[in-house]
C-alpha cells in the first residue's frame, strides 16, 4: 500500500539505495578520520583506531539497537519491533546494500 508523497509505506527500507549514498558514506568516514588526524596529540595509528571505534559504535547503535522508524511510518506499526538492519531491503538477505554495510567495517 503506497501512502503519502514518498511512495513508500516505510522509507526506512530503501534510503540506503539512493543515488550517491555509498560515496557520501565513504566521504563521511574519511572526514571523521581527517578530523581525528587534525588533533595534534593523536598519532596516525591512534586516529585510525578511533575512526574504526567511532564508526563501528555508531553503526551498531543505529543499525542494530534502535528500533522502529525516525518518523511516523504509514505501515500500521509493523516496523516498530524491527531494527533498522531488519528493515533494510524489506528484510531480504545478501542484497548489495547489506553487503556494503558488512564490508565497510571489515575494510576499516
Short description:
The protein has 108 residues and is mostly helical. It has helices at 21-37, 44-65, 84-87, 96-107.
Give an account of the 3D structure.
- The chain has one domain.
- Helix content is 51%, strand content 0%.
- The protein contains 4 helices and no strands.
- Helix 1 packs across helix 2.
- It is elongated and about 50 Å long.
- The protein starts with 20 loop residues before the first helix and ends with a helix.
- The mean pLDDT is 83.
List keywords for this structure.
transmembrane helix, ORM1-like protein 3, 108 residues, ORMDL, membrane, mainly alpha
Order of helices and strands: HHHH
Biggest sheet: strands, sense, closure?
none
As a whole number of angstroms, the C-alpha radius of gyration is 16 Å
Distance N terminus to C terminus?
Answer: 39 Å
Bin the strand percentage: under 5%
Report the count of strand segments: 0
The average pLDDT is 83
Percent range for helical residues? 40-55%
Structural domain tally: 1
- Judging from the principal axes of the Cα atoms, what is the shape? elongated
* Oligomeric nature of the chains: single chain
What is the SS-derived class? mainly alpha
GO biological process, one term: regulation of ceramide biosynthetic process
Family: Belongs to the ORM family.
Pfam families: ORMDL (PF04061)
Protein name: ORM1-like protein 3
